Amino acid sequence: MSAAQQFCAVESAAQGDPLAGSGVHAERNLLLSWPRRHWGRNLRRANGMSEALLARLDALAESGRRVNLIHRRDQPEESHRLYLMPENREFAVPRDELPAFLEAFERDADLAAWERPAPMAPLLLCCTHGKKDKCCAKFGYAAYKALAAAVEARPDLPFEVWESTHLGGCRLAASALVFPALRKYGRIPPDDVIPLLESEAAGRPYLPCYRGDSRLSPLEQCAQVAALEWLAERGEPATALEVVGVEERTGRARVTLRRRDREGGELSVTCETREVLRLDTCADIDDGGPSLSRVWQATAIEPH
């Protein structure tokens, strides 16, 4: 396969690069609608943004709040939707008022003039950031179209589906993230779109494409996903498992998780590190090639 035909997502899957443990994401987020055709390579910058707006967005990012651009065809170009997560707040702001809105937000001032009712449905972001990585254009946009079409056709699937700039892990495209639950997904093929949405609508992660709970560390995500899979194989699907203990030493760890459902009980998951030779992005194809990375892998599960 020539370099022009190579995709980091294809190579990642071929190398056995695991999904579980790759779901880390900032908990504090600002999502700003902006037409996709104007997106730049940076996840929060686009053509048409004023210097004042760029400065405000950079300041927010420096303060620890991740800023992503989002897009949907039905959103007017000069009127912008903004979401604050995990606060689950929604706003409608004309373009020329964006710097004033962000300045008021930074001062913790009253935002009532722009605020809309809180989102009633979860937001589902799918990375289509082709200017960042060609895998997100090829695989991400196909997944976005399938997710959006499924939600439009099924009123029982209560999601707002948006295209998004870079969500992390281009090699795992198509990547998606559900707010406010902060569950991250990757490698979403067409056949998994409906079951993923149905599982999320029921409040459960969809395990075949699940990267992890973004609020957990990679180790904790790996252990939690392994425990959820172990329970599902035994006909005991759990909606959530709480990490209650971590014992870690070089290359090996033991994570204890507690079931947060009527069944109760705890599981201990042993995890070990292994090395994967991978391309992190398509840019690595022409710039140094694959590199060794350490990932966690669950090796044993013990109920108690």
Task: Give a brief rundown of this model.
This protein is of the alpha+beta class and 304 residues long. Helices cover 24% and strands 30% of the residues.
Describe this entry's structure for a reader.
Helices cover 24% and strands 30% of the residues. It is built from six helices and 14 strands. The chain has a ten-stranded mixed β-sheet with strand order 5-4-3-1-2-7-6-8-9-10. The longest helix has 20 residues, at 134-153. It is of the alpha+beta class. The chain has helices spanning 8-14, 51-62, 98-106, 134-153, 193-201, 218-233; strands at 29-33, 66-71, 79-85, 89-94, 115-116, 123-127, 160-164, 176-179, 183-185, 210-213, 241-249, 252-259, 266-278, 291-303.
Secondary-structure map with pairings?
Blueprint (H helix, E strand, L loop, with lengths): L7 H7 L14 E5 L17 H12 L3 E6 L7 E7 L3 E6 L3 H9 L8 E2 L6 E5 L6 H20 L6 E5 L11 E4 L3 E3 L7 H9 L8 E4 L4 H16 L7 E9 L2 E8 L6 E13 L12 E13 L1
Parallel strand pairs: 1-2, 6-7
Antiparallel strand pairs: 1-3, 2-7, 3-4, 4-5, 6-8, 8-9, 9-10, 11-12, 12-13, 13-14
Helix pairs in contact: 2-3
